[in-house]
């Protein structure tokens, strides 16, 4: 494999090989059903026997993102997390800050608003990223004691309750 004919040919071979690796990365991402960082995805690919470097994984993810094939969110440390974009368009997700699990959310109203803004502004090629994070049910601590008995707060202080009479 050490033959070196022309620089151009070597480049083409490299290109094909890179394309295959990137396709493999996309395949691993497609099978993973949660948001995943480049490093995690790299580890998953290697575990599957896909021989790729972390740099290739980063580039592949970047290409997927730029091609509109992946949705991206930032985790708390600012690391980019990727998830394949559904065929019918981009999706917004609710993501657990504790375990990272995610679920798609209905964002029709949001998309409508985005279209309205786009239509009424002079900006072109608008893009948006909206991410909702929270703590999923399994990650929530045991139900907090709602009332700890002694000293329940006196109501009626400044509470605008229903008008009397
Ligand atoms: Zn969770
Ligand atoms: Zn959207």
Number of helices: 4
In CATH terms, what is the fold-level topology?
Arc Repressor Mutant, subunit A
Spatial gap, N to C terminus: 94 Å
What are the segments in which pLDDT stays under 50 over at least 5 consecutive residues?
149-163
Number of domains: 1
The level-1 CATH class: Mainly Alpha
Helix content: 25-40%
Please give the CATH architecture.
Orthogonal Bundle
Note the main sheet. 3 strands, antiparallel
The 3D shape can be described as: flat
Specify the structural class. Answer: alpha+beta
How many beta-strand segments?
6
Computed CA radius of gyration, to the nearest angstrom: 24 Å
Q: Spell out the helices and strands N to C.
A: HEHHEEEEHE
- Please list the strands of the largest sheet in the order they lie side by side: 1-3-2
Organism: Streptomyces chisholmiae
Region (Disordered): 142-165
Main location: cytoplasm
Biased composition (Low complexity): 142-153
